[in-house]
Design goal:
This protein is of the alpha/beta class. Helices cover 38% and strands 25% of the residues.
């Protein structure tokens, strides 16, 4: 018997005049210990399939039809109380956006242990021991500190690894992994994939691995299903699909896989003034919830960072999770004030595209409201003009006009990220910080968004500070690249020369991991 069997699954939203079908008569099965990949663009139905399999789609939000059999039991027929007994113990889940999945008011240790509290009779000491072991196995070195930390005290990559630890701690029958390595740098990504493969094989865990990265799915899964518009367009062995794709859509996806290439744009402005100047910047975080240090003891996150950003210039910040990239961005925007040094920028409305679109968008407001808000606060446009601007921006980021009426939770991860990009561009800023702006996007849309950002920069002179762990994205986009490690800039230069002749051993290691 298959561990999971999906029969004629359909998920239909009724949030407008016309019903929207997210999953359309979709069927597949997965055997015990098998790892299967669901690939496709944002909105293809991958995440909705996983949410349905976890019983997380409410009847008032959407109509769910068909059968989802977990070891023969149709979970769609179970009550919420019965599903709570299954989630965590029999079904493990790793979601795309850890900041919205983790409780901000609870420590990491409490949350990793939660499954054991609910579904086992282990003692407090044994639960702590297993939680520390799971955190360590997820690739987090300072696991004692991580155990005592809150989610907001960790980087995006560290939070994602905490989610992986929590999902695997109870050794579930089925693991639903929705973009589990999206927020991870290339070196840790390899470690996490190896960890997932090793633990799931050792414990006979069945895995549904959802990703827009076909290369990633190929390296992990024996079999994959390519989805488009809620349907399966191609299914088979991963190697066969990658080497001999049959569907035109599959061929397009494979052709769009990022490579170390640069697209040329002609700059249409002559002013080369300085937009941003950072001098000797240091940043600090207080130690909290620690018996070893008093509350006034601080941990240094940035060390003497200095650089300038010219008009229309795109600078890339690359490095592993926890290297200080996001802290630097927060300091520049005034979101982190425990710092020394000087930061000067000459722009009225600097904007930021955040890494985690799920936590940066207001969950209680529609897309129309979110995009219109900066226009209401900072311009004198009337309602009709604001609506026209919203429609134009949705067109630019490749989202349908009818999405104006949707709420963030009704969009896929990639669609939410595009809304975040649109919101940042609404006021036509001269300086933009993009923190992992395409990490949640599928390969085809990723290419479109990167080209869009570069085109806007080169045509209007908007300056961009691009933060990314994807060295291919940095190579494609940036005029200069800064490599960060342990809160310091250890190497900088133009992409072509730096990538071909890296001087620092850390830079060489990053490039090797990225396949450069």
């Amino acid at each position: 018997m298959a561990v999971l069997e999906v029969r004629n699954l359909s998920v239909i939203f009724h949030d407008g005049k016309k019903a929207q079908t997210a999953v359309d008569d979709f069927s597949f099965s997965v055997e015990k210990g098998e790892m299967i990949g669901l690939v496709g663009e944002s909105g293809s139905g991958k995440t909705m399939t996983a949410l349905a399999a976890a019983g997380l789609i409410l009847n008032k939000e959407a109509e769910v039809k068909g059968k989802i059999l977990l070891s023969g039991t149709d979970i769609l027929s179970l009550s919420e109380k019965e599903m709570r007994a299954i989630r965590g113990s029999r079904i493990g889940m790793i979601f795309q956006e850890p900041m919205t999945s983790l409780d901000p008011a609870k420590t990491v240790g409490w949350q990793v242990e939660e499954v054991l509290k609910l579904h086992t009779k282990l003692s407090k000491e044994k639960r702590r021991e297993k939680a520390l072991e799971a955190i360590k196995e997820a690739g987090l070195v300072d696991f004692e500190r991580i155990y005592k930390s809150y989610p907001h005290q960790l980087s995006g990559g560290q939070r994602q690894r905490v989610m992986i630890a929590a999902a695997l701690i109870a050794k579930p029958e089925l693991l639903l992994a929705d973009e589990p390595t999206t927020a991870l740098d290339v070196t840790v990504q390899k470690q996490i994939l190896a960890l997932l493969k090793k633990q799931c094989k050792a414990n006979g865990i069945t895995v549904i691995f959802i990703s827009h990265d076909l290369s990633l799915v190929r390296s992990l899964c024996e079999r994959m299903i390519v989805m488009k518009d809620g349907r399966a367009v191609e299914e088979g062995l991963s190697d066969d699909i990658f080497e001999r794709p049959k569907a035109d859509y599959t061929k397009e996806l494979i052709a769009a896989v990022p490579r170390f290439e640069r697209e040329s744009f002609e700059k249409k402005y002559s002013d080369n003034g300085t937009v941003l100047k950072v001098s000797k910047l240091c940043a600090f975080y207080p130690y909290k919830n620690s018996r070893l240090f008093s509350n006034d003891k601080k941990s240094q996150a940035l060390y003497d960072i200095s650089f300038t950003l010219g008009k229309g210039e795109i600078i890339g910040l690359a490095g592993e999770s926890g290297s200080g990239k996001s802290t630097l961005a927060k300091c520049i925007l005034g979101l982190h004030n425990d710092k020394t040094g000087d930061i000067c920028h000459s722009t009225k409305y600097p904007q930021m595209i955040f890494q985690d679109s799920g936590s940066s968008l207001n969950p209680s407001k529609t897309v129309q409201w979110i995009l219109e808000e900066p226009l209401k606060n900072c311009t004198s446009l009337n309602a009709q003009q604001r609506e026209a601007c919203v429609k134009e921006m949705l067109y630019l980021v490749k989202l349908p006009e009818e999405f104006r009426k949707r709420y963030p939770h009704q969009l896929s991860g990639g669609q939410r990220q595009r809304v975040s990009i649109a919101a940042a561009l609404m006021l036509e800023p001269k300086f933009l910080i993009a923190d992992e702006p395409v990490s949640a996007l599928d390969v085809t849309v990723q290419k479109q968004i990167l080209s869009l950002l570069k085109e806007i920069s080169y045509e209007t002179g908007v300056s961009i500070l691009l933060i990314s762990h994807d060295l291919r994205v940095v190579y494609q986009m940036c005029d200069r690249v800064f490599i960060m490690k342990d809160g310091m800039i250890i190497e900088e230069g133009e992409p072509v020369s730096l990538y071909k002749n890296p001087k620092h051993s850390y830079t060489k290691m990053l490039l090797e991991s990225a396949g450069a």
